């Protein structure tokens, strides 16, 4: 939650009451950003903000492949900094994917590190009803394949990511939802994926908001499984793995239709220091589908949102 005294580019212009009354508060001032699925899930209202993120993701002991259960284990970490620049109360430039990945498996795969792809685009609030504390946007992002193949990035010709998100504030409750598609320009090198995420939070106090979130990724059209990511089992991973890798990675796995659906649940909270334009968040996330049909055994995400 951010207090009404904080500001950001593109703030809703307060309506003026009678001369002897103060301006009406920003109706979206208390809205908080979701924490899980951070490269795809954000608020429906444009804001100018910085969003540093750290993710620690433990991987399952074994994962499903066409060769049977293969040991992996270990973890990976992501260090990222997102930003958004509001051009008006309805329109913003949004940079949602970047950062540095450290990949540290226990078995079979290779310890590597490198940069993630870059993703950015425009977000427009087509529905903006501050009097009802309701907003919805359309967003179009483009993921540029500039990352390092050592950490499963940098393949294909880029990915278009159209999405729609909605925000509703109701008393102490906040509800948010987003759905979209990852549409690769080269649908052999990367899989086509539908995703959706939902968020609910409660203003327990003016500075503390517990929250719960759920995300679902579903493969619509798998890739061709061609040789890629040569640091890992000679580039054969997309041909043998039996699923896609969730929010950060797209292998173009040929056998992703074996386990096309991946669902996670997250519990966490946000803390807003009184009178400050920044908030801190933390969430623990775990799979709700079968653990070895994804890269996530459990995940801990911490972040900060700083508005300007």
Tell me what you see in this structure.
This protein has 308 residues and is mostly beta strands. The protein has one domain (49-307): monomeric porin ompg (Porin, Beta Barrel). It contains one helix and 16 strands. The chain has one helix spanning 237-240; strands spanning 49-58, 62-65, 68-71, 75-86, 91-97, 100-104, 112-115, 118-129, 134-144, 159-170, 173-184, 192-202, 208-221, 261-271, 278-287, 298-307. The chain has a twelve-stranded antiparallel β-barrel with strand order 1-4-5-8-9-10-11-12-13-14-15-16. The two termini are 14 Å apart.
CATH-defined superfamily:
monomeric porin ompg
Strand content: over 45%
CATH class: Mainly Beta
Secondary-structure element order, N to C: EEEEEEEEEEEEEHEEE
Radius of gyration: 20 Å
The span between the termini is: 14 Å
Which runs of at least 5 residues are low in confidence (pLDDT < 50)?
Answer: 1-23
- CATH fold call: Porin
CATH architect. name:
Beta Barrel
**Average of the residue pLDDT scores:** 91
Number of strands: 16
Overall shape: it is globular
The number of distinct structural domains comes to 1
Keywords summarizing the entry:
disordered N terminus, mainly beta, 308 residues, 1% helix, 1 helix, two-stranded antiparallel ribbon, 12-stranded antiparallel beta barrel, Porin
Give the SSE layout.
Elements: E1 49-58, E2 62-65, E3 68-71, E4 75-86, E5 91-97, E6 100-104, E7 112-115, E8 118-129, E9 134-144, E10 159-170, E11 173-184, E12 192-202, E13 208-221, H1 237-240, E14 261-271, E15 278-287, E16 298-307
Antiparallel strand pairs: 1-4, 1-16, 2-3, 4-5, 4-6, 5-8, 6-7, 8-9, 9-10, 10-11, 11-12, 12-13, 13-14, 14-15, 15-16
């Amino acid at each position: 939650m951010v207090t009404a005294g904080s500001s950001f580019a593109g703030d809703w212009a307060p309506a003026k009451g009678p001369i002897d009354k103060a301006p009406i508060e920003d109706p979206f001032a208390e809205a908080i950003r979701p924490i899980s699925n951070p490269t795809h899930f954000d608020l429906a209202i444009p804001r100018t903000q910085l969003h540093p993120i750290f993710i620690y993701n433990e991987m399952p002991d074994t994962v499903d492949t066409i060769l049977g259960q293969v040991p992996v284990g270990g973890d990976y970490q992501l260090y990222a900094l997102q930003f958004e620049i509001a051009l008006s109360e309805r329109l913003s430039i949004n940079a949602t994917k970047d950062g540095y990945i450290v990949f540290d498996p226990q078995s079979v795969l290779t310890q590597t590190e490198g940069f993630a792809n870059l993703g950015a685009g425009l977000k427009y609030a087509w529905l903006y009803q501050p009097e009802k504390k309701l907003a919805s946007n359309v967003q179009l992002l483009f993921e540029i394949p500039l990352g390092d193949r050592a950490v499963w990035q940098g393949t294909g010709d880029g990915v278009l990511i159209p999405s729609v998100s909605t925000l509703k504030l109701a008393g102490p409750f906040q509800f948010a939802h987003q759905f979209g598609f990852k549409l690769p320009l080269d649908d052999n090198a990367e899989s086509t994926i539908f995703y959706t995420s939902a968020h609910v939070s409660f203003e327990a106090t003016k500075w503390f908001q517990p929250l719960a979130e759920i995300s679902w990724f579903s493969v619509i059209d798998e890739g061709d499984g061609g040789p890629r990511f040569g640091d890992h089992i000679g580039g054969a991973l997309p041909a043998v793995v039996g699923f896609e890798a969730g929010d950060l990675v797209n292998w173009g796995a040929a056998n992703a239709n074996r386990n096309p659906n991946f669902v996670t649940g997250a519990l966490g909270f946000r803390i807003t220091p009184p009178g400050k334009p920044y908030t801190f968040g933390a969430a623990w996330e775990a799979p709700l589908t079968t653990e070895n049909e994804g890269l996530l055994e459990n995940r801990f995400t911490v972040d900060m949102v700083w508005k300007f």
